Amino acid sequence: MFLGGPSNREEAAEKVADKTAYEDYRPHLASYIFPEQIKTLLRECWHKNPDRRPSFQEIIDRLEKIHATLQEKIVLGTCCSCMIL
């Protein structure tokens, strides 16, 4: 999903779902595709303990801040503009 296709083409979807639910499997987040703030937020959303995950309002607030930061970098020409939030 994060790379434009299945996270593991060699494994059946059911096996990947089982690994995610029971073995804490998470897809690799390539640093050249995702800004560090996005990777951090995704990892927090994936926390095994639901009480440790951010609320939807916190997710929205953080994404808005990340978006504003990326927009500033695009205007300044210091960031690739191909990432869309």
Automatic annotation (TrEMBL):
GO terms for molecular function: protein kinase activity. It comes from the Eukaryota. Residues 22-63 form the Serine-threonine/tyrosine-protein kinase catalytic domain. InterPro entries: Kinase-like_dom_sf, Ser-Thr/Tyr_kinase_cat_dom. This is Integrin-linked protein kinase. It comes from Solanum tuberosum.
